[in-house]
Amino acid sequence: MVECYNAMGLVQKDAFRTMMISYFGIVIGYLNKGVLFLIILSTEQIGLVNLVVSVGTLFAQFANLGTVYSTWKFLPFFKNESKKHHGFLLLMLLISGLGILLCSIATFIFQPQIVELYKIRSPLFLEYYYWIIPIGIAYVLFMVLEIYLRSFYRNIVAVFALEIVLRLAMTILLFMLYFGWLTFDVFVALQSLIYVLPTMILLAYLYRLGELHISPKHIDISKRFRKIIFQFSAFNYINTLGTVLVNSMDIMMIAQMLGLKATGVYSTVIFLASALQVPYKSLVRISSPMIADCWKHRQMDKMKELYTKVSSVSLFIGLAIFCVIWMNIDLLFGFLKPEFQPGIWVFFFLMMGRLIDMYGGLNSSIFTTSKKYKYDILFTLFLIVCVFVLNLYFIPIWGIPGAAISTSIALIVYNVGRLIFVYAAFKIHPFNWNQILMIVLAFITLFLGYIVHDWIANDWLDLAVQLIIFVAIFCVPIYIFKLEPESINYFKKGLVFVVQKLPVNKK
């Protein structure tokens, strides 16, 4: 068990590793989606591939039946090496297996309704509709295994499998398609089947660790506890769906209302915007199990400390990435096809919503692992309804930027509501005045960058000047006045590590 008061060091260390792996995966993903997709596939085919993956991952979220949050919440109470953790892993796999069966049946039952929704604007999707099933099955099993490993603070292999192995497999398939070794039909089939690779890697890793306890005799959880787990799973099942539905609903509604070409543009921009949340996801991946431990040991002061530090670090990194990208957005989109230009404002509004989501920090983990978890269903239902209704109104008016606006508005209201509730219920919040100063510095940086941008004609010179402004106006004051101590300390440690590794210091 990792005590909350010793947590931040582990968070920094593992979060940095997972962040580096994730960013390496982003580079591979950009090669795939930002280069090879645009060279090899038509915009309509890009929309199709991304839609199949999006619906497949939605299948997985339906099929997990709330096991993700149940593992976060309850596994700390069942950890016992000698008793194989009371068979907790097998119980979660059995619950997910039931979900897989139910969702597979639903996929066939509701196929006629799906045909009616997509036959006009996106008929190509209907030809590959059933390939969502292998993606969904593989991904839900990966989710169960990954969250189980996360509870033991084993994060690196899961991130590597999903971010690196899966994307490299996609790269290989794209080259095979480019050289004519695959038809597009076979490519779609194989890109669905490769989702089994990360799952197989985690199974092998669990076996190597001696943690693959899947014998029925290992299940030793009382009926009373099973009832509590099932009730918790049922409530958080809807909460899990909320976030995923928000991420998938845009793509599905755009495909239905505007067609696969618009879907291709929107889904590509979503991938580009995902770089903003990599550090945040790395921090949450490590920190969420620690929140459960804090609840177990009644360490509210330590929870508040972790809550504030994760929010501050996430805000700093999020603002930094947003400033760098937005100050050079024309150069970034200059590498894409002209039809992707509407994606600039999609990018802006998506990043606004994600910044607020990051600023909220661990509110989701605190909420869903507390005794007040049942109230979270109200926020999730609001999120789903809000995005759906706003999409119906904004997409016909503004097209794909309208979908981004809908998502951002919903995420902002959703996170503000959660923050208020967490404070009202537990008297903790993640805010401090330094965070406000960082936001002000970000606004000043963006404003000066906007002014200078109009004076410089050369894109690469503009890039250099924008980076100088970013460092001078945003980074230097934060460093001098220690507005974000955790990030500064980690930067200093990294700098010392690099200096020590220089050849001149090895003599």
Indicate how many domains the architecture comprises: 1
Low-confidence stretches: 1-7
Spell out the helices and strands N to C.
Answer: HHHHHHHHHHHHHHHHHHHHHH
What oligomeric state is this? single chain
Q: Which percent range describes the beta-strand content? A: under 5%
**Distance between the amino and carboxyl termini:** 41 Å
Any idea what the shape is? globular
Radius of gyration from the CA trace?
A: 23 Å
Count the beta strands: 0
Q: Helicity level, as a percent range?
A: over 70%
Tally of helical segments: 22
Task: Present the secondary structure layout.
Elements: H1 7-40, H2 43-63, H3 67-78, H4 88-109, H5 111-118, H6 123-127, H7 132-151, H8 156-178, H9 184-193, H10 196-209, H11 223-257, H12 260-273, H13 278-296, H14 300-327, H15 329-333, H16 343-359, H17 363-368, H18 376-398, H19 400-426, H20 433-453, H21 459-480, H22 485-501
Walkthrough of the structure:
The chain has one domain. The chain has 507 residues and is an all-alpha fold. 79% of the residues lie in helices and 0% in strands. Helix 8 packs antiparallel against helix 10.
